Amino acid sequence: MEKRIPDIYNSLQELSWQFGDHGFNGECCGDLSLVEYMALKKILNTRSIPIQEIGIALNFTKSGATRIIDRLEQKGYVLREQSPVDGRVCCVTVTPRGVEIMSKIIEKYTKYVQDILEEFKPEQIEQIGNSLEMLVKAVQKNKPFDSSF
Amino acid sequence: MEKRIPDIYNSLQELSWQFGDHGFNGECCGDLSLVEYMALKKILNTRSIPIQEIGIALNFTKSGATRIIDRLEQKGYVLREQSPVDGRVCCVTVTPRGVEIMSKIIEKYTKYVQDILEEFKPEQIEQIGNSLEMLVKAVQKNKPFDSSF
DNA sequence: ATAATATAGTTGACGTCATCAACTATATTA
DNA sequence: TAATATAGTTGATGACGTCAACTATATTAT
What we know:
Two copies of one chain form a homodimer. Chain A is mostly helical. The first copy, chain A, has a single domain, classed as Arc Repressor Mutant, subunit A, CATH 1.10.10. The first copy, chain A, has six helices and three strands; from the N terminus they run ααβααββαα. In chain A, a hairpin with a 7-residue loop joins strand 2 (78-82) and strand 3. The first copy, chain A, is globular and about 55 Å long. The two termini of chain A are 21 Å apart.
């Protein structure tokens, strides 16, 4: 067992808490919850996506996904349209207002990250960027997580 | 604006989602929610802590903290005791069962992180560890996060 | 000493949210 | 064309955190 591993786990957890639902004094993303923000981001990145896909991507049931889209639609950030290809499918797209709120949110967070990293040298920032990239890639390989207890 | 910053933000968010409430198929920590796990960890690290402190540390109201402790107590992982120093204060301590579940959870996650990092070289792991440590320290300096929209 | 105030914690009512199971509507297959 | 499969929605439900009001203990002022 690599000695550094437990430290890495702890750091990851600490950071995740800060960037998760309870960080930033619970003030996540304007009038969006973290979940809504993530859904909106997913929709934006795919341009048009069936509701179920959103649920799968974010680990919600399809009814959960329906409810998330309900909220985003009420707030005016997305639109439902019936798919021209398959009448059962409900393509969700982002409205201009949705695009706008997203860019504002991303701007705030980016600003925050920049403040956080203010005192680091460019090569340190480079190193941090590389490390996080490696981690993300490693995580996306979807190693099984044994959740039995 | 450093060019790397938006990437860093994205990576952080990606990792946070994975390590947050919805990652790992929602299978966080045995019979503990992420919030309960974080509270238990906090209690363990301080040995004995007033309920309100837990709320402050994790960004909950004091009644929210009360409810979290209720759940942990029902599950047998913590105990409430009146403080000998101040009768208003309710010192929370971890039971042996609490210690046990914590070490199991940490073991699982550490194992997971190890699997994730399996293919990296020791110096890469070292670099990742250092980067995360820098990030955690930077975050803990508690820069203000502008949450206005 | 005692009355007034402050603080820690609890509780009932409430709103939010995700899930389950049942349902509708459309598509595919036999 | 009948049977089955799939996408999405909905009502009922349970988990959870907050607010405001409350209890109990401690501190401060007179």
